[in-house]
Amino acid sequence: MLSLSVVLIVASIDRTQVGGEAADAIVEAVAAQTKTASMAIKIAYASRAQIRQSRGLLKEAEDDIAGSITWGEAQSQRDERSLAIWYASRASIRQDRGLLKEAEIDLAKAITWGEAQSPRDERGLAIYYASWASIRQDRGLLKEAEENIGKAITWGEAQSPRDERILAIWYASRARIRQSRGLLMEAEEDIAKAITWGEAQSPRDERSLAVYYASRARIRRDQKQYPQALADIEQSLATARADQPIDEWGIAVWFGDRATILAEMDRVPEALADIATCIAWHRQHQPDNQRRKALILRDQARILAQAGAWEKAAASIAESLPLHEAVFGTDHEWTKKAGVWQAAIGAKQVPPLWLETKF
After folding, report:
1. CB-based contacts of 194: which residues, under 8 Å, 6+ apart?
2. Is residue 42 one of the residues assigned to a domain?
3. Segments forming the whole domain that contains residue 352
4. pLDDT score, position 158
5. 327 part of a folded domain
6. How many domains does the chain have?
7. In angstroms, rounded to a whole number, what is the distance separating the alpha carbons of residues 86 and 24?
8. Helix (H, G, I), strand (E, B), or coil: what is residue 256?
9. Contact call for residues 222 and 251 (beta carbons, < 8 A)
10. Given 247, 281, 315, which residue is the final one in a domain?
11. Distance between CA atoms of residues 242 and 224, nearest Å
12. pLDDT value, residue 101
């Protein structure tokens, strides 16, 4: 019989600290102990899904969580609470894979169940609203995203005592949304709250701080504070390289961010090398993430234009634009902006900065 303590250990694995092989060993050990404690095994696989997600092994992560969900849905007495948690977990994985509509469907299941409970788990719902905000941001639904994250923050700020760690995460999320909306002053205020709290902790969560510094780098880039933005992104990259295992996914994403900063500092050859590395990693490891490819190829097109490589720039934006249409829709602001960039490149003109692009 599988002991409850083993189940709890597996369920509470810290996916940022446990290596992949160790996680696999734990899960397989749990599965080997019993053939009857199916729920315990599914908890173990759901936990491994989170670990694999953090390592960028998204297909494997989705396979794990899908097994848990399929099993849970097939039970005559369904554990709806566990299913809601697993739907939310799969939503996060699918979001990382760029499967945004599917992610939103999964999260809607979790939210619908949570809102129907009495009493409601308001903390759990706040976490789901924050996740919904992130998915909607990725879909380009920025106003709706800010409304969702606002719900979570309002709830969090009203608690006594306040969970400052989760509030820092939510402030950083709202900062990213506001940066995408061009609300740079408000975004800077939010990310400052997250960073100030994170830097004051002992021990510090360097991985979370790296994410916050990268967010501030993008805000500072859009504010045209390029040296400060570069210092921030270099700090994020240094942390990612020091991680064990190395955070290859973070490095790839932040290479793309650094490319857009270097290009504005007249360091175009370095920018081209960075964006090429970013694209190559995503093509190899996340080939079905159309959203990420749309944005990275778009950024590459502008950098190539800055280099005067017009034919390559045209090819890059030509690949990016249909992806914008598929992910965001033909009438979305971002798709129209990408079309403006394509026209500029076709006329052998460097497109304007993204936030300054009019359509």
Report:
1. 168, 169, 171, 172, 175, 212, 215
2. no
3. 291-359
4. 97
5. yes
6. 2
7. 19
8. helix
9. no
10. 281
11. 29
12. 92
